[in-house]
Amino acid sequence: MADKVLLDYDGPIATITNNNPDKHNAFDDDMDQLLWQILGELRQRPEVRAVIWRAEGRSFSSGRDVSSIGGHRVELTHHQLMTRGHRGVQQLFELDAPVLVACQGWSIGASFQRALLCDIRVAAEGARFMLPETTHGVIPDTGGVARLHQICGPGVAADMVLTGRPMHAAEAYAHGIVSRVVPAAELDATVREMAERIAAAPAVTVKMARRVLGHLAEPAVRASMAEELIAQTFVNKSDDYAEFRAARAEQRPAHYTGS
Protein backbone atom coordinates (compact mmCIF):
# COMPACT_ATOMS: atom_id res chain seq x y z
CA MET A 1 0.00 0.00 0.00
CA ALA A 2 1.29 3.43 -0.91
CA ASP A 3 2.12 5.85 1.87
CA LYS A 4 -0.78 8.08 2.81
CA VAL A 5 1.48 11.15 2.99
CA LEU A 6 4.02 11.62 0.20
CA LEU A 7 7.06 13.83 -0.28
CA ASP A 8 8.45 14.67 -3.70
CA TYR A 9 11.19 17.01 -4.90
CA ASP A 10 11.31 18.93 -8.16
CA GLY A 11 14.36 21.16 -8.19
CA PRO A 12 14.10 23.67 -5.33
CA ILE A 13 10.41 22.90 -4.69
CA ALA A 14 9.21 20.13 -2.38
CA THR A 15 5.64 18.85 -2.44
CA ILE A 16 3.82 17.16 0.43
CA THR A 17 0.72 15.27 -0.72
CA ASN A 18 -2.08 13.95 1.47
CA ASN A 19 -2.76 10.60 -0.18
CA ASN A 20 -5.76 9.06 1.57
CA PRO A 21 -8.45 10.18 -0.90
CA ASP A 22 -10.96 7.43 -0.13
CA LYS A 23 -11.40 9.01 3.32
CA HIS A 24 -11.14 12.63 2.17
CA ASN A 25 -7.55 12.54 3.47
CA ALA A 26 -8.63 12.11 7.08
CA PHE A 27 -5.51 11.73 9.22
CA ASP A 28 -4.81 8.70 11.39
CA ASP A 29 -1.83 8.22 13.71
CA ASP A 30 0.30 6.63 10.97
CA MET A 31 -0.27 9.66 8.72
CA ASP A 32 0.69 11.96 11.57
CA GLN A 33 3.95 10.09 12.01
CA LEU A 34 4.68 10.28 8.28
CA LEU A 35 4.03 14.02 8.33
CA TRP A 36 6.37 14.58 11.29
CA GLN A 37 9.07 12.56 9.49
CA ILE A 38 8.60 14.60 6.32
CA LEU A 39 8.85 17.90 8.17
CA GLY A 40 11.96 16.61 9.92
CA GLU A 41 13.52 15.74 6.57
CA LEU A 42 12.65 19.15 5.13
CA ARG A 43 14.39 20.82 8.08
CA GLN A 44 17.60 19.18 6.84
CA ARG A 45 17.17 20.31 3.22
CA PRO A 46 18.44 23.91 2.88
CA GLU A 47 18.32 23.59 -0.89
CA VAL A 48 14.50 23.52 -0.74
CA ARG A 49 13.24 27.05 -1.43
CA ALA A 50 9.47 26.48 -1.26
CA VAL A 51 7.13 23.73 -0.05
CA ILE A 52 3.71 22.96 -1.52
CA TRP A 53 1.21 21.04 0.64
CA ARG A 54 -1.62 19.61 -1.44
CA ALA A 55 -3.93 16.61 -1.59
CA GLU A 56 -5.18 13.91 -3.88
CA GLY A 57 -8.93 13.51 -4.21
CA ARG A 58 -11.76 15.85 -3.34
CA SER A 59 -10.60 17.35 -0.02
CA PHE A 60 -7.42 18.69 1.52
CA SER A 61 -8.35 16.80 4.69
CA SER A 62 -11.53 16.06 6.60
CA GLY A 63 -9.59 16.12 9.87
CA ARG A 64 -9.17 13.13 12.15
CA ASP A 65 -10.06 9.64 10.90
CA VAL A 66 -12.45 8.79 13.73
CA SER A 67 -12.67 5.17 12.57
CA SER A 68 -9.00 4.76 13.51
CA ILE A 69 -9.40 6.00 17.08
CA GLY A 70 -8.81 3.12 19.45
CA GLY A 71 -7.71 0.88 16.61
CA HIS A 72 -4.09 0.77 17.78
CA ARG A 73 -2.68 0.20 21.21
CA VAL A 74 -0.81 3.40 22.08
CA GLU A 75 1.33 3.44 25.20
CA LEU A 76 0.91 7.18 25.65
CA THR A 77 -1.50 9.30 27.64
CA HIS A 78 -3.68 11.85 25.88
CA HIS A 79 -1.41 14.58 27.26
CA GLN A 80 1.65 12.82 25.83
CA LEU A 81 -0.03 12.34 22.45
CA MET A 82 -0.83 16.06 22.31
CA THR A 83 2.72 16.95 23.28
CA ARG A 84 4.06 14.73 20.51
CA GLY A 85 1.68 16.33 18.02
CA HIS A 86 2.65 19.86 19.06
CA ARG A 87 6.34 19.07 18.68
CA GLY A 88 5.68 17.53 15.29
CA VAL A 89 3.69 20.41 13.83
CA GLN A 90 5.95 23.09 15.31
CA GLN A 91 8.62 21.87 12.89
CA LEU A 92 6.78 24.03 10.37
CA PHE A 93 8.20 27.05 12.18
CA GLU A 94 11.75 25.71 11.84
CA LEU A 95 11.79 25.42 8.05
CA ASP A 96 13.68 27.98 6.00
CA ALA A 97 11.26 27.55 3.09
CA PRO A 98 7.72 28.94 3.10
CA VAL A 99 4.87 26.42 2.99
CA LEU A 100 1.98 27.05 0.58
CA VAL A 101 -1.23 25.07 1.09
CA ALA A 102 -3.60 24.18 -1.74
CA CYS A 103 -7.02 23.90 -0.10
CA GLN A 104 -9.72 22.00 -1.95
CA GLY A 105 -12.97 20.53 -0.72
CA TRP A 106 -13.01 20.25 3.06
CA SER A 107 -10.29 21.40 5.49
CA ILE A 108 -11.57 20.38 8.91
CA GLY A 109 -10.38 20.40 12.49
CA ALA A 110 -6.71 19.76 13.14
CA SER A 111 -5.98 19.66 9.41
CA PHE A 112 -7.44 23.15 8.97
CA GLN A 113 -5.39 24.29 11.96
CA ARG A 114 -2.21 22.86 10.44
CA ALA A 115 -2.96 24.74 7.22
CA LEU A 116 -3.39 27.91 9.27
CA LEU A 117 0.10 27.43 10.72
CA CYS A 118 1.60 27.49 7.21
CA ASP A 119 2.62 30.65 5.36
CA ILE A 120 0.10 30.92 2.53
CA ARG A 121 -3.24 29.28 1.79
CA VAL A 122 -4.91 29.25 -1.63
CA ALA A 123 -8.46 27.92 -1.92
CA ALA A 124 -10.28 26.30 -4.79
CA GLU A 125 -13.75 27.59 -5.48
CA GLY A 126 -16.14 25.56 -3.35
CA ALA A 127 -13.58 24.87 -0.62
CA ARG A 128 -14.90 24.86 2.94
CA PHE A 129 -13.27 25.19 6.34
CA MET A 130 -14.53 24.09 9.74
CA LEU A 131 -13.50 23.70 13.39
CA PRO A 132 -16.12 21.29 14.78
CA GLU A 133 -14.29 20.24 17.95
CA THR A 134 -16.73 21.75 20.47
CA THR A 135 -19.58 19.79 18.91
CA HIS A 136 -17.57 16.68 19.85
CA GLY A 137 -17.10 17.85 23.43
CA VAL A 138 -13.46 18.96 23.11
CA ILE A 139 -11.54 22.07 22.02
CA PRO A 140 -9.26 22.80 19.05
CA ASP A 141 -5.76 21.92 20.22
CA THR A 142 -3.32 22.26 17.31
CA GLY A 143 -2.45 25.96 17.57
CA GLY A 144 -4.42 27.10 14.56
CA VAL A 145 -6.99 29.03 16.58
CA ALA A 146 -4.28 31.50 17.63
CA ARG A 147 -3.40 32.07 13.98
CA LEU A 148 -7.09 32.37 13.06
CA HIS A 149 -7.46 34.98 15.81
CA GLN A 150 -4.45 36.87 14.41
CA ILE A 151 -5.80 36.79 10.87
CA CYS A 152 -9.45 37.69 11.30
CA GLY A 153 -9.95 38.77 14.92
CA PRO A 154 -11.73 37.43 18.00
CA GLY A 155 -15.27 37.66 16.64
CA VAL A 156 -14.79 35.40 13.62
CA ALA A 157 -12.54 33.04 15.56
CA ALA A 158 -15.12 32.71 18.35
CA ASP A 159 -17.90 32.13 15.81
CA MET A 160 -16.04 29.28 14.13
CA VAL A 161 -14.80 27.67 17.35
CA LEU A 162 -17.97 27.95 19.44
CA THR A 163 -20.55 27.11 16.76
CA GLY A 164 -18.48 24.75 14.61
CA ARG A 165 -20.05 26.20 11.47
CA PRO A 166 -18.48 25.78 8.03
CA MET A 167 -16.89 28.74 6.26
CA HIS A 168 -16.88 28.86 2.46
CA ALA A 169 -13.94 29.93 0.34
CA ALA A 170 -15.34 33.38 -0.54
CA GLU A 171 -15.80 34.24 3.13
CA ALA A 172 -12.38 32.84 3.99
CA TYR A 173 -10.89 35.13 1.34
CA ALA A 174 -12.81 38.12 2.69
CA HIS A 175 -11.35 37.50 6.16
CA GLY A 176 -7.80 36.92 4.86
CA ILE A 177 -7.69 33.25 5.84
CA VAL A 178 -6.81 32.43 2.24
CA SER A 179 -4.98 34.88 -0.03
CA ARG A 180 -6.53 33.71 -3.30
CA VAL A 181 -9.55 31.77 -4.56
CA VAL A 182 -9.19 30.10 -7.95
CA PRO A 183 -11.14 27.58 -10.05
CA ALA A 184 -10.54 24.05 -8.79
CA ALA A 185 -8.92 23.03 -12.09
CA GLU A 186 -6.34 25.81 -11.65
CA LEU A 187 -5.48 25.23 -7.98
CA ASP A 188 -2.34 23.13 -8.36
CA ALA A 189 -0.99 25.26 -11.21
CA THR A 190 -1.60 28.49 -9.29
CA VAL A 191 0.17 27.26 -6.16
CA ARG A 192 3.02 25.88 -8.26
CA GLU A 193 3.49 29.26 -9.98
CA MET A 194 3.56 30.98 -6.60
CA ALA A 195 6.12 28.47 -5.29
CA GLU A 196 8.30 28.97 -8.37
CA ARG A 197 8.24 32.73 -7.87
CA ILE A 198 9.33 32.33 -4.26
CA ALA A 199 12.00 29.79 -5.20
CA ALA A 200 13.42 32.18 -7.81
CA ALA A 201 14.06 34.93 -5.23
CA PRO A 202 17.36 35.04 -3.31
CA ALA A 203 17.24 32.26 -0.72
CA VAL A 204 18.59 34.35 2.14
CA THR A 205 16.06 37.10 1.42
CA VAL A 206 13.12 34.69 1.62
CA LYS A 207 14.57 33.07 4.73
CA MET A 208 14.95 36.40 6.53
CA ALA A 209 11.52 37.64 5.43
CA ARG A 210 9.92 34.44 6.71
CA ARG A 211 11.84 34.78 9.98
CA VAL A 212 10.59 38.35 10.50
CA LEU A 213 7.01 37.31 9.76
CA GLY A 214 7.39 34.33 12.06
CA HIS A 215 8.60 36.43 14.95
CA LEU A 216 5.41 38.50 14.64
CA ALA A 217 3.12 35.49 14.89
CA GLU A 218 4.79 32.51 16.54
CA PRO A 219 5.06 33.61 20.19
CA ALA A 220 1.27 33.88 20.51
CA VAL A 221 0.77 30.58 18.68
CA ARG A 222 3.23 28.71 20.91
CA ALA A 223 1.65 30.23 24.02
CA SER A 224 -1.80 29.20 22.80
CA MET A 225 -0.62 25.64 22.17
CA ALA A 226 0.77 25.42 25.71
CA GLU A 227 -2.60 26.56 27.10
CA GLU A 228 -4.49 24.18 24.80
CA LEU A 229 -2.40 21.30 26.14
CA ILE A 230 -3.52 22.03 29.69
CA ALA A 231 -7.13 22.84 28.79
CA GLN A 232 -7.69 19.79 26.58
CA THR A 233 -6.19 17.50 29.21
CA PHE A 234 -8.61 18.99 31.77
CA VAL A 235 -11.57 18.64 29.38
CA ASN A 236 -10.82 14.97 28.80
CA LYS A 237 -10.86 14.31 32.55
CA SER A 238 -13.93 16.47 33.26
CA ASP A 239 -17.36 15.40 34.46
CA ASP A 240 -19.00 17.24 31.56
CA TYR A 241 -17.00 15.34 28.95
CA ALA A 242 -17.87 12.03 30.62
CA GLU A 243 -21.52 13.12 30.59
CA PHE A 244 -21.24 14.16 26.93
CA ARG A 245 -20.00 10.69 25.95
CA ALA A 246 -22.53 8.88 28.13
CA ALA A 247 -25.45 10.92 26.80
CA ARG A 248 -24.44 10.22 23.21
CA ALA A 249 -24.00 6.52 23.86
CA GLU A 250 -27.36 6.32 25.64
CA GLN A 251 -29.11 8.64 23.14
CA ARG A 252 -30.47 10.94 25.83
CA PRO A 253 -30.20 14.65 26.65
CA ALA A 254 -27.00 15.60 28.47
CA HIS A 255 -26.99 17.29 31.87
CA TYR A 256 -23.88 19.44 32.26
CA THR A 257 -22.56 20.95 35.49
CA GLY A 258 -19.65 23.01 34.15
CA SER A 259 -17.08 20.83 35.88
In the sheet with the most strands, the strands line up as: 1-2-3-4-6-9
State the share of residues found in helices, binned by percent: 40-55%
Level-2 CATH architecture? Alpha-Beta Complex
Computed structural class: alpha/beta
CATH class descriptor: Alpha Beta
Mean pLDDT over the full residue set: 95
Low-pLDDT stretches are: none
Strand content: 15-25%
Number of domains: 1
Outline type: globular
Largest sheet: 6 strands, mixed
Number of helical regions:
8
Description:
The chain is of the alpha/beta class. The chain is 47% helix and 15% strand. The model has no long low-confidence stretch (mean pLDDT 95). The chain contains 8 helices and 9 strands. The chain is globular and about 60 Å long. α2 packs antiparallel against α7 and α4 crosses α7. The longest helix is centred in the C-terminal third of the chain and has 34 residues. The chain starts with a strand and ends in a 9-residue tail after the last helix. The protein has one domain: 2-enoyl-CoA Hydratase, Chain A, domain 1, CATH 3.90.226.10.
